[in-house]
Amino acid sequence: MIDETGSHVGIVPIEEALRRSEAAGLDLVEVSSAARPFVCRIMDYGNFKYEQAKKQRESKRKQHVTDVKEVKLRPRIDEHDYAVKMRNARKFLLQNDKVKFVMMFRGRERSHTEYGFKLLDRVVSELGALANVESRPQAEGRFLVMVVAPDPAGIKAEKARIEKEKKLQEQAATAEAKGAA
Prior knowledge:
This protein is α+β, with helices and mostly antiparallel strands. 49% of the residues lie in helices and 23% in strands. The strands form 2 sheets. It has a 4-stranded mixed β-sheet with strand order 3-4-6-5. Strands 1-2 form a two-stranded antiparallel sheet.
């Protein structure tokens, strides 16, 4: 048995252990049923359960679930549309989510999948250090699919660059405001 202070008492009959727990106003909890003799502890079981739930909530709060975000492309995508898709992919990667690029082919485009491969190579080169290619472009029916995962070092560098850029913009805005006044 282990008492309420956490010190080892030794082997005690069950009746004695129950009497001690009632005298302390606490619960007698069986800690290890596999051990012979059983290991019991005198504690406030409600408080123990509350602390466990609190620790579990705290650990859930700290973890990030990696989602797979999908970006759909076409082989003859316009430059502006491509820029928007890349901006979204970059945002997803900065949020530590994987990005699945899906190239869709229709009609005669299906016989010219090399354009899709070229476009996905361009995507990889533009994302550069921000992402690692998890699965190379693969043909799946009328689709060409590629998955990229965020690169921790690249993400850290990109976030630092963004912070530096924000500070420079703020400094320029304050200097402009002082000049106007």
